[in-house]
Design a protein that fits this description.
By secondary structure, the protein is an alpha+beta fold. It has two domains: about 190 residues, Ribosomal Protein S5, domain 2, CATH 3.30.230; about 140 residues, 2-Layer Sandwich (Alpha-Beta Plaits), CATH 3.30.70.890. It is built from eleven helices and 14 strands. The strands form three sheets. Strands 1, 4, 5, 6, 7, 8, 9 and 14 form an eight-stranded mixed beta sheet that branches. The longest helix is centred in the last third of the chain and has 20 residues. The radius of gyration is 19 Å and the shape is globular. The structure holds (3R)-3-hydroxy-3-methyl-5-(phosphonooxy)pentanoic acid. The site of (3R)-3-hydroxy-3-methyl-5-(phosphonooxy)pentanoic acid has 14 residues, from helix 3 and helix 6.
Length: about 350
């Protein structure tokens, strides 16, 4: 079991800077790639939604069919370095120390190149401190870090709304990882997507909630969220009701957060999670992201609650269980979840900061 230290909540979020050294494979990759013109490095944290997003109103601009509310997680993050290199002929990407297919990255980098009026290819080096593609929102932290690093490397100065709109085009949940603490993503109505961005609701240190992540499987999920959302949108009878009632859930969550009412936040969190998984299960063919340990951990959270602990679960498009804890209860929750059969590892995390440049 690995317990990560609690976060950087004593560091002013807007000015948060760390210096971090690249891993050995990363250093080798960078040495191999040479030139350092137009270079920037950024860190963005993963997030989990308390009120869930599932479904797109526009696939090309990646516009969500519903808004969402999330918490940014201090303990799970991506560090990304981008170098626009005049000598490079193709984009090259190293993910967690291994060269990887650049297609999805190139599409995203094209947005940045177009905006900056450059056509240099890029070297991207990205490292996650947690399992990739396994329902821990690596695409959220990954595309948020890429948006910030790539725009800076291209010489662009973008505010957090513009960065959130850019990150959204890589992954819907990435729009939220530009911001820290408790965050709301707006669905927006405009066809051009300029009103579909995330905004902070509360800073990380205003309400120091904690999250215990119970990892039950580190494998890559079978149906990625884009494909899953597309089938739910066309092949679930529940989808219209999901979209219709989203605003009511968001309004309830906003007011529960404004009141710092942990019970109301927790109840809505479990409700939105189970409703989203109900939608997934009702899709033809059904999307089943849980395994036996996922279900056992959900029951364990409910048992802890019956025993008096303030804790509620949520689960994304994967088998990991995240337990939202009122301040001061994460150690007890992590100790209990670590004993659940099939839970491989638990991590405790505080709420994390907005994405930031790394010197
Ligand atoms: O951002 P995407 O395309 O990975 O979709 C995320 C969808 C969920 O994680 C299941 C829910 C959410 O709001 O983050």
């Amino acid at each position: 079991m690995l317990h990560l230290a609690h976060g950087l909540t004593d560091v002013p979020i807007a000015h948060n800077r760390v210096s971090c050294r690249a891993s050995k494979p990363t250093q080798r990759f960078l040495a191999m790639m040479g030139s350092n013109s137009g270079r920037a490095r950024a860190r963005a944290h993963s997030n989990i939604a308390l009120v869930k997003y599932w479904g797109k109103r526009d696939a090309v601009l990646n516009l969500p069919a519903v808004g969402s509310i999330s918490v940014t997680l201090d303990g799970l993050y991506t560090d990304t370095e981008v170098i626009f290199d005049a000598k490079a002929t193709i984009d090259r990407v190293a993910l967690n120390g291994a060269q990887t297919d650049p297609t999805r990255f190139s599409r995203f980098l094209d947005l940045v190149r177009r905006r900056a009026g450059i056509d240099k290819r890029a070297i991207v080096v990205s490292d996650n401190n947690f399992p990739t593609g396994a329902g821990l929102a690596s695409s959220a932290s990954g595309f948020a870090a890429l948006a910030l690093a790539a725009s800076a490397a291209a010489g662009l100065t973008m505010n957090s709304r513009e960065l959130s709109i850019l990150a959204r085009q890589g992954s819907g949940s990435a729009a939220r990882s530009i911001l820290g603490g408790l965050v709301e993503m707006h669905r927006g109505d405009a066809d051009n997507g300029l009103d579909a961005y995330a905004e902070p609701i509360l800073d990380a240190d205003t309400w120091p909630l904690e999250v215990v992540v119970a990892i039950t499987d580190t494998g890559v999920k079978s149906v990625d969220s884009t494909a899953g959302m597309q089938s739910s949108g066309t092949a679930s009878d529940f989808y219209p009701a999901w979209v219709e009632h989203a605003e009511r859930d968001l309004a309830g969550m906003r007011s529960a957060i404004a009141d710092r009412d942990f019970t109301a936040v927790g109840e809505l969190t479990e409700y939105s999670c189970l409703k989203m998984h109900g939608l997934m299960l009702s899709t033809r063919p059904g999307l089943i992201y849980w395994n036996a340990a996922t279900v056992a951990a959900m029951h364990a959270v409910r048992k802890l609650r019956a025993d008096g602990l303030p804790v509620y679960f949520t689960i994304d498009a994967g088998p990991q269980v995240k337990a939202l804890c009122a301040p001061g209860h994460a150690d007890a929750v992590a100790a209990a979840l670590a004993k659940v059969p099939g839970v491989l590892e638990t991590r405790i995390t505080a709420l994390g900061p907005a994405a930031f440049r790394v010197e």
